[in-house]
Amino acid sequence: MHIPVLKKEVIRSLNPKPNENFVDCTFGEGGHAIEILKRTSPHGKLLAIEIDPELYKKGEKLKERFGERLILVNDSFENLEKIVKERGFKDIHGILLDLGMSSWHLEESKRGFSFQRDEPLIMRYDWQKDKNSILTAKEILNKWPGKDIEKILKECGEERFAKKIVKEILETRRKKEIATTKDLVEIIKKATPKWYQRRKIHFATKTFLALRVFINQELERLKKVLPQTIEVLKKGGRVAIISFHSLEDKIVKSFLKEMEEKKLAKIITKKAIKPSLEEIKQNPRSRSAKLRVAEKT
């Protein structure tokens, strides 16, 4: 069951009212979107963007419930301005960016996002079975030079044992193909010290994060979409962004500060809003979430 992170806080920040229009740049399984659509009835519309073709198909079932009020697009949010223009979507009161993975990706996609399952090393959101030519984690781990893999682990995952992990990757792939998440977890286990494996955060977290962020170009796409959110919002409209790791949050924080300095937006959240202990207990995956909100001036 997918539980939308910081749902109450997002709704409080965006404050959707009847007949207002919103954009959900990361539709996922529609947790936030459904709540926004409920509050903007009878005529408010939601433009929902979803990069994953399988999640997009699942989301289409909601069309039966909300009809023309839900405009669902299978695309990347980095094309926000283009999508808004093509759909003639105007008078936007709020935009949501939830940068976390949906539970579906971890539990059902079978693409290797989770180190707790034994799955093929794909790690792509836009994966389709006929798209064998696109880059996967398996290709990087088996074919890329060690120095390039080390760079990914350091820059996209801030992995302190990147060098040792890469050394183990190179030794392993000389003997056999690194094909599954289980193979990768074993490599990381061999390469990292025992104390690192006893910590609260799983020892494979940063390596998996780094590969996923790099393959899906998550940081680049975030940098591209942020200026577009301010561009397409109406004056007084708000953008709410939920990030899940320090690299994302740093980009968001820096962007909002720049917008405020240029007097293009006002930061509403002087400090990032974090999940309550109750929410973390109910949904442990929410623990690293940070919500930042700004209003277009």
Describe this entry's structure for a reader:
This protein has 297 residues and is of the alpha/beta class. It has two domains: 171 residues, Rossmann fold, CATH 3.40.50.150; 89 residues, Putative methyltransferase TM0872, insert domain (DNA polymerase, domain 1), CATH 1.10.150. Helices cover 46% and strands 14% of the residues. The chain contains 15 helices and seven strands. A seven-stranded mixed sheet has the order 3-2-1-4-5-7-6, with helices on both faces. Helix 2 links the parallel strand 1 and strand 2. Helix 9 crosses helix 10. The model has no long low-confidence stretch (mean pLDDT 95).
CATH superfamily of the largest domain: Vaccinia Virus protein VP39
Task: Compute the number of strand runs.
Answer: 7
> Which fold name is given in CATH as the topology of the largest domain?
Rossmann fold
Measured by DSSP, the beta-strand proportion falls in 5-15%
Instruction: Please bin the fraction of helical residues.
Output: 40-55%
Q: Mean pLDDT across all residues, rounded?
A: 95
Low-confidence parts lasting 5 or more residues at pLDDT below 50? none
Determine the number of helices (DSSP H or I, runs of at least 4 residues). 15
**Biggest β-sheet strands, sense, barrel:** 7 strands, mixed
The tally of structural domains comes to 2
Biggest sheet: strand arrangement: 3-2-1-4-5-7-6
Query: How far from one another are the termini?
Result: 38 Å
What letter string, H or E per element, gives the SSE order?
A: HEHEHHEHEHHHHHHHHEHEHE
What's the CATH architecture name of the largest domain? 3-Layer(aba) Sandwich
Q: Class of the largest domain in CATH?
A: Alpha Beta
